[in-house]
Every structure is written in C-alpha cells, then in structure tokens.
Amino acid sequence: VHKFVLNLITEWRKLALPFAEDTVVVAVSGGADSLALLLGIDDLRTRKKLALRIVAAHFNHKLRGRESDADEEFVKQTAAERGFELAVGHGTIEKSGNLEQNARNARYEFLHSTAQNLKAGWVLTAHTMNDQAETFLLNLIRGSGIDGLSGMRPVRELREREKGRKGDGETERSISPSPLLPFSLSPPLLVRPLLRWARREDTENFCRESGVEFRYDTMNEDMSFKRVRVRKMLLPMLKEFNPKIIETLALTAELMQKSVPPASAGGTDAVERSTPIPEELTIKDLQTLDPGTLHETIRSWLKHRRASLRSVGLKHIEAIEQLIHSKKSGRTVELPGSGLVRKQNGRLRFENIKVD
Amino acid sequence: VHKFVLNLITEWRKLALPFAEDTVVVAVSGGADSLALLLGIDDLRTRKKLALRIVAAHFNHKLRGRESDADEEFVKQTAAERGFELAVGHGTIEKSGNLEQNARNARYEFLHSTAQNLKAGWVLTAHTMNDQAETFLLNLIRGSGIDGLSGMRPVRELREREKGRKGDGETERSISPSPLLPFSLSPPLLVRPLLRWARREDTENFCRESGVEFRYDTMNEDMSFKRVRVRKMLLPMLKEFNPKIIETLALTAELMQKSVPPASAGGTDAVERSTPIPEELTIKDLQTLDPGTLHETIRSWLKHRRASLRSVGLKHIEAIEQLIHSKKSGRTVELPGSGLVRKQNGRLRFENIKVD
Questions:
Q1: Distance CA A115, CA A119 (A)
Q2: pLDDT tier at A110 (50, 70, 90 boundaries)?
Q3: CA-CA distance, A134 to A231, in Å (whole number)?
Q4: Pick from A134, B66, B79, B210: CA 20 to 30 A from residue B245's CA?
Q5: How far is the alpha carbon of A154 from chain B, nearest alpha carbon, in Å?
Q6: Most A CBs within 10 Å: which of B6, B178, B251, B296, as the mutation test of the A interface?
Q7: Do the chains contact at A242 and B14, CB–CB below 8 Å?
Q8: What does the CA dihedral A318, A324, A329, A332 come to, rounded to 10 degrees?
Q9: Is the pTM higher than 0.90?
Q10: Is the ipTM value over 0.95, yes or no?
C-alpha cells in the first residue's frame, strides 16, 4: 500500500468520515491535489476499505477557454476509467470584483447543490498543507487578526461559505469548539482530508507513481494573484530559513485553531448571540480600552453591523481607531466595497451605503 | 512638543510607569532606538513632566573592538551633555555557542545588578515595533508554536530573562494574565515604552530632528545573523505585499498576547503549578491524543523536565512524535545543547545529559 493511501485512511478515520453506505462528493479540478485524492479513494475502494457511493464533481469555470474544456474532458475520462460517477457544472463567472472569489463562490454553490441533489452528507476538497500555509501567510500579511491565523479547518459546514463570509485570505468561522468532532454541524459537511498531512509534492508524486498525468492550471502561474506571489516568491525565501516551512506554518495554523478561544476566533454562533451587539458605540467608552481590546471590539462590532468583514483589513480598523482618538467631529471611514463608519455626537455609527 | 514625545508620555501613562520620586534605569546602546528613548525622556524632564532619577546604563560588549569603545565614549558624552547619570558595564562575552544570546545574557545581568544597586524598580529598553515584527517572524519561521507569536511583552519581570528561558527567537512567558497591569510582578520590571507604537524610522527621525547623530552597529549588517536576514531580506519582500507590514505584525503579536489562554501561552506560574507535570509520559496515552494536543503536551512536559525550551524547535517535537508513533523501542531524540528524550518500556523519559 502506498504511503499516501495509508495517510489518507488514517486521516479518514480521524475526521470521522463514513466507510460504507453513505454518499460522498469529491471535488475534482484535474490538478494534482484533487486527482491524488480521487486516486487514493479509488485505491481504498479497490481494497474494499471503502464501500461508499463516491461522486466526483467538476466545475468548469470557463475562465481559460479551451484549457478549461480540456480539463473537463480529462476529468470525464479519468472518472470513466476509474468507474466513478461524475457531476459536471458549468459557470459564467462575473469578471467584475474579485475574480478568484467569484469563481470560488460559483464552485461552492455547485458543490452544495450537487450534494443536496445526491443527499450526500460530505463534500471533500483536496486542500493541502501548502494551501494552508499560503492561506496563513495571506491572512498574516493582510492583518486579519487572530482569526485569520487559524486558516482553514479540516471540517466545517459547507453552507458557511455561501453566507459570503469567506473571501481569499479571509477567515473561517469556528463553528464548533472542537472542529474535529462534527456532531454539532449540519450536513453537508466540507471536509479536507489532505489538509493536515499532505504536501503538494506528495500529491504530485502519488499521481506520477500511479501513472496518471495531472492537469496544470495556468492561473497558478499568474503573478497578478497574491496567492501565486506568496507561493512563488515568499515561500521560497522562507524555505531558506526553514526547509520545513510548509509543515511549520500548517501546524501553526492547526495549533491556533485549538488554542484561540471561540470569542476572539470569530466566535461560535452561541457565543455571539449571548452578547448583544450595540447599534452605535460610545466613543468615550472606547477611549478607555487598551489597544488590543479596542481593536477586537471594533472588528466584532463591524462584523455584525456590516454582516461580514470581507476585504476589511488592519488599515480600516486603524482608521476607525484614529476617528476615536481624534478631536474633530463628523468624520467618516469608508470601507472597501460597501459601507462607512461615521463619527457623530460622540458615537460611531455604521451606515450601509455603497461607497465608490 | 514633538509627536514622538507625545506618544512616549501617552504610553508611559498606559504602562503605569512612575512620574516622580522613583529611580528608572534606561538601557542605552547609542543606536537610534535607545538614543531616541533617552532624548524623549530628557524632553519630558525639561518640561517638568517627569521628576524621576534617571540613570542611563550602557554595556560595552567589547565585541567590535574600537567600534565598541567609540560607542561607549559616545554614550558617556551624550549622557554628560544632557545631565544624565550613567552606569557603564564591561563584558567578556563567550564566543562559543550563540553569540547574540551570550551577549544578551551578559547585558541583562548588568542591567539587573545596576537596577539592584540603585534600588530602581524599572529598567527601560528601547525595543520598537520593528523588533517586535522581527521577533514574531523569527518565532514563526522557527515553529515555536503559539507562544512565540506573542512576541515580546511591554512589561515583564526583568529577572525572568535570567532564568535562561529566553533566547533569540524564543518566547516570553506570560507572567500575569494581564501584562499591562504589573501589580502582580516583582521589581525590577523590564518595560519597553516604544514597543507598541514606535517604528525604527520614528526613532531615527526623532534623533535627527533633535540634532543628535546616533551610532550604527555594524553587526546590524552582518547577514550571518538570522535576525539581520529577516530585517534585510524577508521584511522588504513582505512590505511589497503590505506597506504597513511592521505595524501589522507588531499588532498581531500584541493581539496574540491578549487572546492566547495562559495554559497554551506557556502558562502563568499559577496555572502550571496546578497541573502536576509527570516524570514520564505513557506512550499509549499519548497515542490517543490528536496532533495539536499531543504537540502541546510534549512541549509543556519537556519545558518542565528540561527547565526551558531554549533552541527546541518544531523538528525536535516532531522527532519525539515519531518516537511515539513508531513501533521500534529503545530509541532516543537528542535535544540541542543538552538533554535527550528516551523511549523505553512504553514510556518517554527525559535525561538531562550533555549531548555533543
């Protein structure tokens, strides 16, 4: 048995994934990561370790013309050869705004409806330790506070993402105090069985050693994406300091998930509901807070008033802190995308208007 | 009044530093940071905001020959011009082992004895947000777990450092659950009044605008030091992603100090004492733990058995985890500097022998 397959089944057990009877959807782009996951599952199925209904799901974003169609063709062929059922979705992605985020939203919507149609309780994605390390760095650079450093969780509710709380480099809400015990989560669950142990080189090697040519996504070379620059420039430099930097960052994110109390990690719904969030904040009160508490107070207030902290970075929170500490009145801080915070009559108020 | 001085007095108040009667020691190397701190205090004293006995303290490490002596001469002259008392120490630093760490230990010993001789309750050092950002990154790269990401604290007991728990890139123990309320700490306190707001450019500009030429330490250019490489290579790259990366990382460390519960942050003494640390760990028990808990369990056990986690990195903890999961018996993991962990009869034992 290949080491990749051994690691996969070990993690499968730890994540409390099912072994028989249930239906599991596996998101497959055709790249090395998702292909390795599918091949690993195929191996386990052949060895009778798994007796599940497995449905591969491919979403064609139609963003790269013929290349996208060739990916789809490749996944169709691979699924057929290995005897997997396949669901294919096609999308027209809005090119305005954050392209990566729009593509992701469309893809997750497709995965969600696929899971619902199939009454599948689990959707698996092939995020690796490399993805986790990249997410950690993107969040660190962006200044997303403590939450962001927890990175992606191995198990969460799939529909969380649809609420629009998640963007590239954004944070995932802690749903249950123990993310590894998904008893309190409602299906379909999004599970990432490679996240805590597989590196990109492991998935590539496993594909090669299985004799399967995986697809390359040319967008992974496009340096206009911050994530690509993190992967191609920042991580190689960090590797000079620590050859095991991927593992180190991924483990740090994992430790953070366990160590950060729910309240500051974005909070479980229960925690959030137990503290009423005021409509306006009194500046005098805010001025008595120490910097860290002030920062978290503003973040948490804004999150509720604005419904999400999407695209809100450290610089916006800092601008609001300056409002609080400056003497002049009537000033505002505009937030990216939509909304502004206004200082008036000794209070801060959030106004949900479109800012251009 | 210069903005630097306004920021200094604001932070002075927040850190509950004294305004009159007491004695305060200020560590002065002659570089921009410590000079700016001394000049800021001089300004406040001239304006009658402070009525303290201020003693500048300079430690000549004698590591850079004439350059070191010129630094000493410069500090002597500056202190005399500004009417500050001055304490000077000379050291012979052991060149074996970690030079930076040996130098730091000698310097802190000097500061401690100076404070004791003067019955001073406070020793101020001029660490800036840049130092905090560098420490954060060094700890992140090293994989020092959650503790390291809390970085330096603005207030702590000076003698903590003497216990040998702190090395470059190591972590500071959380002494009190609220590091900003030093009521439970015993003097002399080490206080860093620039840590939470001043950037290196602020100290350099304040020196220049005060018409004072600060000294340059040529060791700050020596790329054989990891910290210098972080400053000269890694931070400039991160700045391309986020121009305010120094502030972002420093604030992240600060938020971490407030958000990480004492138990995983290294623990207050009280918390640590309430949980007896076993002499040996049973491997069967360890095997039932999830990766994050296992990691923290090993770290915390080792910290107590070995008296410190100095130089212990992620790779050592991982090697111990492999001991736990491998079938072979009688294997050991050697730790850097001293000590090893031995697996025998289904248990892990720490042996405090010198390893070469």
A1: 6
A2: very high
A3: 7
A4: B210
A5: 13
A6: B251
A7: no
A8: 30
A9: no
A10: no
